[in-house]
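Task 17 of the worksheet. Students: predict the tertiary structure of the chain below and write it out as C-alpha cells. Keep your answer in the requested format; marks are given for formatting as well as content.
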Amino acid sequence: MLNGASAVVTGASRGIGHAVARTLAAAGVRVFLLSRSAGDLERVASDIGGGSVAVPCDVTNADAVQHAVHVIGERRTTGPILLVNNAGIFPLGAIERIDPVLFEQTLQANLLAPFRFLHAFVPLMRAAGEGHVITIGSVADRSIYTGNGAYSASKFGARALHEVLREELRGSGVRATLVAPSATDTPIWDPIDPDNSPGFPPRAAMLRPEDVSDAVLWAVTRPRHVNVDELRISRA
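Model answer:
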C-alpha cells in the first residue's frame, strides 16, 4: 500500500516527528524531513536511510515553506503523498501573563504552518485521487488545562482544520486522520521538567514517541476505502 509513497514530515528532527519518520522509512516510504536544524536533519536522514531527504525549513516562515515545497516537488517521484503535520511549540502561561508575541508565534507554528502545507499539497493529492494527511493533535485539542491558552487555542484550531478537511475530501480518495496522543515523552518537555513540576505527569508515565508513530503507520496502512477519522491514544 505504501509502495512508491513519499512522506513529508514536519518537526522531524526529534520527538514524535523523528519517530514517525523512522517508522515510515522502515515501511518503505521515502521521507522528506523538515525542521529548522539542518545538522540534526542530516543526521536523522542518514540514520533512518531509505533515501530520506533533509529539507531545512522554518515552518513559521511562508517563504521557507514555499521553498521547501519547491524542493520536495523537484525530488519527489510519482506516488501517494503522506503529509504529517507534526511541528509545533508548547508554551505555558496564564492568559494575562503570556507575551502576545509568543501567543502569535504559537498560532503560527501550530495552526498556520499546517494550513500552509495543506494548501500546497492537498491539490496534488486531490488531482491524483490518493494521499493521506495526518494531523498530530493533542489531548489539549479537546480538554482544557490552566496555562494552556496559547497551546489549546492552536490545537483546537488544528482539530477544527482537520475536521473541515475531512469533510472537504470525502469521496476524493484522499484521506485525513487526526492522531491525538496524551502527554508524550519528547524534548518538548525539557524546559518544563515535569518530574519536578507540580500538576504534570512524570515522564515515566507518558507515552513514548514510538507509540504515536505506530498509530500513524496503522492509520495509513488501512485499506484505501477506509478512513480513520481520529485516533485518541493515552497511557494504559
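Marker's comment: The chain has a mean pLDDT of 95. The chain is about 40% helix and 15% strand.
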